[in-house]
Amino acid sequence: MKKIFDEVRSLDKRAIEEFHLTEDILMENASLSLKNYITKKFKINSSILIVCGSGNNGADGLALARHLFGKFEVFIYLSKDSKTKIGKLQEKRVKSIGVNFVNEIFQADIIVDCLFGTGLNKELDENSVSLINSLNSFNSFKIACDIPSGLNSLGQVIQTAFKADITITMGALKTALLSDIAKDFVGKIKVATLGIENELFQAQTNKYLLEKSDLVLPLRDIQNTHKGIFGHLNIICGDKIGASIIASNAAFIFGAGLVTIICKNDKIVPSHIMQSKSISENCTAIALGMGLGEFEALKLEEILKLNIPKVLDADIFYNPLIVKYLDENIVLTPHPKEFISLLKLTNIADISIKNLQENRFLYVEKFCKIYPKVTLLLKGANVIISQNNNMYINTFGSQKLSKGGSGDILTGLISSLLAQGYKTLEATICGSLAHALASKNYKKNNYSLTPKDLIKEIKKL
């Protein structure tokens, strides 16, 4: 896992006060990180247009130009005169060695965005909007310094934003780079070192970026076993059997020893999946909500009362009964529309999907403060997983997963791990990572992924 921070000014201040670095040293290392990336990736004499603003983000760009000058064709476009003391010093330095300043932007081999940093907190003026849109229209390789210009500290787009192929962010990952909205603008994300190792530079946090190494697969390393050792998952079937079958197949291939679909009447199910009209005596986890539809309230409450690990999904988030059971160790896996219903049922907020999507971290944090035992997974372009005060972000998913049945597979994976004895947070993190990484490994076109394809990829992890 990598640490994530809502703001980094306090980290800069700490580096200056505790480690005796200076603003100039931090800026030199920031610009050197950009320079090192460019020199490794691009041919000597490539043309580079560095677009600078009037603040310290622009000063980073001016310092970068000085480091690149002599090996590349470097041009600086200064959108406004430097306002900061260090910015004026960097401008003086770069002019002294003869770097070209230009009055118009153009399509260079590489464009570096150094217009606005993480401190952007107001609407852009017309000239800035026009400038960013023009830069986006160029067929250049685009690098954002620290954060793509136009994204604010909450990861919201203010009118428009620079679309980067890579964002080289300074010192630490920022929450703003990991919003759903930001995903179409940041490209790849690389963290630059600012004069001391990032482990020293970074302080404590409660937000983390998940990595591939955080996935713990349910590998069977003991020979003397039987199916009962690996848990018995019960999946509650409502109006739509298809969702339960998809979830049961995913759970079965992810290690659950036994999987039973609980339904009122006999259905046609895969031969390896059992079915019953009541909860199994040896049930070790329950998955509930997928395809639930109109389900008898008394029976639903009987199931919710059971002291068995549960994953709740889909239709259950529209049922007021759920509010009575949010003080338990359960996993919730809503998509945005379902989450705003849950927020309304719990009297936390009555908001639109747009409001939620612009403030996903805020509302997840609010919910989990009130219900600290719950493990919440909010689906999206970047999945947010939270329990109590800690938050984990999974960025491995893609548009491939925007298909019916994908969420049922996720529920199957998480509930399978719960059945096998994983804790709720561990099961949610590992199920989410397996789900996203399997989709990432799917090599055919990004619109063709089916639940069957995804299950095949999960088998290969």
From TrEMBL:
Record-annotated YjeF N-terminal domain positions: 8-202
Keywords: ATP-binding, Isomerase, Kinase, Lyase, Metal-binding, Multifunctional enzyme, NAD, NADP, Nucleotide-binding, Potassium, Transferase
Essential cofactor(s): Mg(2+); K(+)
Molecular-function GO term, any one: NAD(P)HX epimerase activity
Signal peptide limits: none
Biological processes annotated in GO: metabolite repair; nicotinamide nucleotide metabolic process
Keyword Transferase: yes
Superkingdom per UniProt: Bacteria
Record: residues binding K(+): N57, D113, S149
Residues given in the record as (6S)-NADPHX binding sites: 56-60, 117-123, 146, 243, 291, 335, 408
Coiled coil: none
PROSITE patterns reported in the protein's UniProt record: YJEF_C_3, YJEF_N
Entry-linked Pfam families: Carb_kinase (PF01256), YjeF_N (PF03853)
Known catalytic reactions: (6R)-NADPHX = (6S)-NADPHX; (6S)-NADHX + ADP = AMP + phosphate + NADH + H(+); (6S)-NADPHX + ADP = AMP + phosphate + NADPH + H(+); (6R)-NADHX = (6S)-NADHX
Function: Catalyzes the dehydration of the S-form of NAD(P)HX at the expense of ADP, which is converted to AMP. Together with NAD(P)HX epimerase, which catalyzes the epimerization of the S- and R-forms, the enzyme allows the repair of both epimers of NAD(P)HX, a damaged form of NAD(P)H that is a result of enzymatic or heat-dependent hydration.
Subunit structure: Homotetramer.
Family under the similarity heading: In the C-terminal section; belongs to the NnrD/CARKD family. Belongs to the NnrD/CARKD family.
HAMAP family, per database record: NADHX_dehydratase, NADHX_epimerase
The protein, known as: Bifunctional NAD(P)H-hydrate repair enzyme
